[in-house]
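Title: Prediction job returns without error message
Component: structure pipeline
Severity: low
Priority: P3
Assignee: unassigned

Description:
Job completed but the reporter wants confirmation the result is attached to the right record. Sequence as submitted:
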Amino acid sequence: MDNNESRFERLTWDDLTIWAGTKTLSRGNSYKNQVRELNMTKDRGILAWVDGTEPYATMVGMDSSGKLSGICSCPNPWTPCKHCVALVLAYLDSLKAKQDVPEASLSDRRLQVIGDKKNPRISDLYSDDEDEDEIDP
C-alpha cells in the first residue's frame, strides 16, 4: 500500500462531512455507483468520469496534511460537488475491495476537460442542464 492509499483510508465520515457538508455528502453517496474509469493521477490524486446529467470529469487530491481538494467539470461553481464526493467514496470502496486502480496517462481526456474548467467562461458555470436545486453550496 502506498502513502496515498493509507491517507485516503484514514478518512472518516466526519472528515468527509467537514470537507463537503452533510447535504453534499449525502448526494455524493447516492452517486458513488455512477463513478467509472477510476484512475490515479501522476501526483497521486484520483480521477474518474462521474455520470450525472452528462459525464463529468472529476478529480480529487489530498495534500500531505490530509486536506482534500476537488475539481469537476459539472456546472456547480462550488467545490466540492457531489461528483467529487462520489469519486472519493468509490475510491474508498475500491481500496476496501483491494481492487487495482491504474494510473491515468498524461494525455487522458479527463485532465484536459478539468484543465478547461480552471479558466471557465462565466456562461459555462451556469447551465440549464441541472436545476438550481441541484447546486450544492
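Comment from assignee: result matches the submitted record. Residues 120-137 have pLDDT under 50 and may be disordered.
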